[in-house]
Every structure is written in C-alpha cells, then in structure tokens.
Hints:
The protein has 287 residues and is an alpha/beta fold.
Amino acid sequence: MRSTNGWEDFELIDASRGERLERWGRRILIRPDPQVIWKTPRGKQWETADAVYRRSEKGGGKWESKNFPEEGWVIGYSDIKLMVRPTGFKHTGVFPEQAVNWDLMREVIVYAKRPVKILNLFAYTGGATLACAAAGASVCHVDASKGMVSWARENASLSGLADKPIRWIVDDCRKFAERELRRGAAYDGIVMDPPSYGRGPAGEVWKLEDEIYPLVELCAGLLGENPLFFLLNSYTTGLAPSVSGYILGAVIQKNRGGTVESGEIGLPVTQSGMVLPCGSTAIWKPR
C-alpha cells in the first residue's frame, strides 16, 4: 500500500469503531469511516475533539462542534495551501491520502525538463492541480461543480499560484473531453478522480461502473505524442485496484506499451503504526 509521511498539518491519530480521529492543523475532528470495523480501545484524545460528524437516519448528517469556524481554516502540504471547510457530507475539501499521488506527479513533471500540459478531470478542490502547477506544468482543471472550482481557485490564491497557467473549467467531464478531442487538444498527463455516483451541471447522471471504461477510452485520445502518465483514482467500495489497472492496460498499455501499476493508497495511523486503506490508484507510464 502506498502512503505518504509528508504531512505536518494533517495526522490520522487513531481509527476505531467506525470512525477516524484526525488532526487538521490545530483542530481535531471525528469522522465516520465504514471500513473501520475493528473495535480497538480509544484514548482520551477522542474525548477532546473540536467537532464530531453525526450521521442522520434520514441520510447525510451534521457536525456537532465545540470549536469549529464555519468559514474554514488553512493547512499546508509542501509548498501548497488548502482551505479546510467541513461539509454536510462529512468531507473537509481535502483528501490527504492523495498527497502520495501529488508527490508522484510533481516528480515526473520536474524530471521531464520540458513544458508539460496536464488535464485534471473531476478535479474537486484542486490538490492535484496545485501540485502539478507548483512543479511547473500548465493545468486544465475540470469539475462539474461551480462551488468546487471556486474553492480550488481559492486554494490556488492561498498557495501563491493564482497567476500560474491554470484553466478553470466548470463542465461535465465527458462533454469537455469530447470537445477537446474535436479541437485536437493533447496533454502530457491526465489525472482522473471520478466519483462513484454523481450528476453533471445539467443533470447528467454519472455511475462509475457504467461510465469509467468509455471515458478512459475517450481520454486516451487526448494523450500527446510523448505522454508522461495517466493516473486513475477510485473510491468505489468493492472495486479492486486491479480493475482500474486492467482498464488502463486494455486501453492505453495495449496501444502505447509502457507499464501499469495499481494498488491501494492509505494513511498511516499514529496510534497503531498501521496504514488505513483510503481508496486505490492505477497509473500508466511509458517505459
């Protein structure tokens, strides 16, 4: 399992009885995680959290807060800054496990020693976008949510990257990719972080099991002559990492050669010394 030890402003302190105990900067949060099925003892830190997310029987949930600024607060990873703003769906606007992929992409971009263009689809609040831009790439950031794109632009400003060559696009990812293909656009790297289920800005329904293979096929046509990587993330429960790897192998490796690696990504747990699985990534790279 791939994980990062590069965080200073985030820490997964403990995980037990269906919940995580996390430090985000100076604040401690408790959030649900259905994968945490073990019932290990909880220390006193669990009793002093600044906020706890409580699920509702009717769906969704809410935060119960003792010390919790609604406007959010800023954390840093390496040289980028990210606004933490807990939402009504337990998320905070940051997926800290993705830092291991941010580091990988930055290394590849810097090592290329040439102008690099990156396409970031389902780009959310922009962690991957900022990492690639900070490494010197020009980035096209695409997400169907206007609010998420605004949040990502806020993060770019906080990180001192507002003037970098980043295109901010609010659009359905498939429709945007189709237009780019017609325009003859080409990218050196593509990162894709699709949800299990979602809707586009015009009500388009997205279901990963039905849509991901044809979308990868479509986006493979946007890779340039000398591409650097195609990175596919998944948070869909029950979908093995090797499934994403197989898709990249069947669509990209078959035609371009290179290698495909797939596996879980996770976060180290301070209390136990073990790593909590937090999704998966498949990566195609040329030889």
